[in-house]
Amino acid sequence: MALAVCLLFDTETDRAIRRLWGRLEESGIPTLLTHTHRRHVPHLSYVVLRTYDLPAVESALEDVPDSGPVHIYIDTLGLFRRGRASLVPAPSPDLVQRQDRVVRVVEETGADLHRYYTPGRWTPHCSLSPRARRDELDRLGAVVYDVLPMEAALTRAVLIDTATGEHTPLRTIP
Q1: What distances in angstroms separate CA 99 from CA 33, 81, 95, 152, one per listed residue?
Q2: Structural domains of the chain ordered from first start
Q3: Rounded to whole angstroms, how far apart are CA atoms 94 and 100?
């Protein structure tokens, strides 16, 4: 079980990404709609914690001042090892600074971060398909690039239990 500190998209972008997941599923490419617990929501993770003290993490994040919505620009389809296909926003200085601040705050609670979320290794992304195969990449690109570029706002922050998909809203947007 892991815990992710995530930002959720504005309503319009959330709907657009869910439609994109649907179009990919219709073309035979599995997405987060049908992955694991099926409670996935379009999101961008600041950090994923492998071990943590939930009350301490919640308390620490509640103390971070509200920085308001994060505005991002997405014009890239990215592929991580093992076939994870994602929308990749431009890493604006604001987004990178916010992620760094969240990492520092949760590390101070004693949490252990997944190595790909440490500053300097983190690539901001919104997952589309957890295991895209090579023979699906042409279709995947065609569907995704039909909707890109995309300007979006990340308007809410939540903690997500990655095993169950359970969400705990945060009062502020770090």
Answers
A1: 26, 22, 6, 17
A2: 3-169 (3.90.1140.10)
A3: 10
Taking alpha carbons only, the member of 61, 31, 66 closest to residue 46 is: 61
Q: Give the residue among 159, 143, 104, 127 at the shortest CA–CA distance from 25.
A: 143
Q: What is the pLDDT of residues 19-63, one digit of tens each?
A: 999 999 999 999 988 877 778 899 999 999 999 999 999 999 999
- Start-to-end C-alpha separation, the chain: 23
Task: Please tell me the pTM assigned to this model.
Answer: 0.94
In this predicted structure, what is the pLDDT of residue 129? Answer: 95
